Hints:
Strand content: 35-45%
Strand order of the largest sheet: 1-21-22-25-28-31-34-37-40-43-46-49-52-55-60
Radius of gyration: 29 Å
Amino acid sequence: xxxxxxxxxxxxxxxxxxxxxxxxxxxxxxxxxxxxxxxxxxxxxxxxxxxxxxxxxxxxxxxxxxxxxxxxxxxxxxxxxxxxxxxxxxxxxxxxxxxxxxxxxxxxxxxxxxxxxxxxxxxxxxxxxxxxxxxxxxxxxxxxxxxxxxxxxxxxxxxxxxxxxxxxxxxxxxxxxxxxxxxxxxxxxxxxxxxxxxxxxxxxxxxxxxxxxxxxxxxxxxxxxxxxxxxxxxxxxxxxxxxxxxxxxxxxxxxxxxxxxxxxxxxxxxxxxxxxxxxxxxxxxxxxxxxxxxxxxxxxxxxxxxxxxxxxxxxxxxxxxxxxxxxxxxxxxxxxxxxxxxxxxxxxxxxxxxxxxxxxxxxxxxxxxxxxxxxxxxxxxxxxxxxxxxxxxxxxxxxxxxxxxxxxxxxxxxxxxxxxxxxxxxxxxxxxxxxxxxxxxxxxxxxxxxxxxxxxxxxxxxxxxxxxxxxxxxxxxxxxxxxxxxxxxxxxxxxxxxxxxxxxxxxxxxxxxxxxxxxxxxxxxxxxxxxxxxxxxxxxxxxxxxxxxxxxxxxxxxxxxxxxxxxxxxxxxxxxxxxxxxxxxxxxxxxxxxxxxxxxxxxxxxxxxxxxxxxxxxxxxxxxxxxxxxxxxxxxxxxxxxxxxxxxxxxxxxxxxxxxxxxxxxxxxxxxxxxxxxxxxxxxxxxxxxxxxxxxxxxxxxxxxxxxxxxxxxxxxxxxxxxxxxxxxxxxxxxxxxxxxxxxxxxxxxxxxxxxxxxxxxxxxxxxxxxxxxxxxxxxxxxxxxx
Length: 787
């Protein structure tokens, strides 16, 4: 049935000016009475955004300098102190006018250092900041991540640094258990496992400082049946293989339903779209709301809760014929704009389309959600908001469910430049973003995301999209879940083109103009996530950001922002992806960030990925760190296998950068394996510390021989080599200048297959070619194209 609803330039250098006074004498002769040469002061000036800071030992603080009076804004950075010299004052990592100060592991005396920025254009001009270094109050727990059989006991010890009172209190909790069902722990730290394995089988043992209850540390305890294999780790070089991650266990069905018997409602320009939505039925059959293709509607439009029959939907779509629109599984692009209606996000803080908490069975197709660039003033808003990220949505049942966004344009504005925080917000279960286009999402001074979600259980499907955003193109969490024990889980991210335009680089790399200073961070960041598959994507362009980020492509760093200690990352599979032009490096996994306890990070697999033009700014290929601002979580079971990661240029300081500052008895990495990879580094280090260096209980350790202190670290002598230069007890690697000696078929034409005479041919531990499986990779990213 068919219903109708409504129808002159100043030089930057000092100049000599001759001032002469002439006096007319009585004898009518001109006499030069005063001729003085004056030199004007240099117009160059330099200021620091922050002139003081307090930094805990081993922690960091960002600084930025502004230079005026010259076109050369570059500065040099130094650090000095009265009671220290060299690295004992700390170190500083910089790029042009941005720098990150890393405090030393021990505070000097006096505990004040100066950060000095000096103008390159005029070295007489400088500015300084005073940094006070204070001891880090930190709680640690040992052992980390043990396996305890049911009915047995495990002794834990807790320590507190930088406090005279080192006592801790103990507690135990779990996601799938409560009280004694999780086990018990005594005041002295003796844990007694329950008689029955809880589900999930991981419980959390927490030590809290008695002197400062805001400081705590948590470790995971895996409870196994007493008749099972504990899987314990005895330390040293036992060559224990990592436990592989579990793939997503739930999937989102984004296929088109049969709409043969659906009611069709037409909404023309100036029609009441909200009324049509409110009146649409999905029981016993569904409704298709067709919206005039060339019309513009002012949001927000609310998709309310409806009692839908199983398999029945309310569909909002363009009324253009399907022959004018992208086919099923074809990505929409801006070339289709004339065939879709526009839903404007016009009001500050409000999206164009908002799906209410508890709503279900909505499908959005062939629409354009965009900002009204003339009046829009964003306040943490999304173009499309599915669910509520606040504490108002605090149960599993309150999430929206079965929400599909398919072939939808979501667009901010570069011209005029508009601050837009998010493209689409996923606070929902069984929801999908597919075949869509998200661009021009950016904010000055704050994070922005193309796709983000935190207050959700999942599953999600993010497939075949173009995703463009300044800070994080895709982000899991970043805020705490308000659903107790819940995290986005069973996430599938496939066949997306994830991209930052180079004209966002400040100043623009394409025009040279100093346009809006968008906050740049990463291409993908995970602060949480359970059972995540990232496969067949292309990630392109990220650089040292205006927000003092390092410009890593992939960043895995569990973070409990405040009140969600269950936050963590586990079971991540990152495979068959291509990463292009990541100035800060490929990135990699870290233990956790921030002072609040988390479940940490465990079971990460990086396999068959190609990363080219990597690390041009930082010189790093991969960062792996067990440092976590006092939360030592171990980060077990990290596996890099069959990856090809090549440098952007000869500035390739390290192949893998490992950083950690941990107390004695703590192992930051367990069952870490690195097999069958082709990677580039220069003649100095293959595996090395960054400027942070590596310390165990305040004692420096040689990071380039990591087996000396990381347990179960595996390197293969079969990893692709050129000249057998050793950088560790089990490893060899290839210097940058000789990378083609590996024997690629044609690296100049981006063909990174190994030639028949390559030293890496069939040389893997599994009998396969070393490096990425290029046939499988090319098949996985076929059809994944950019703008």
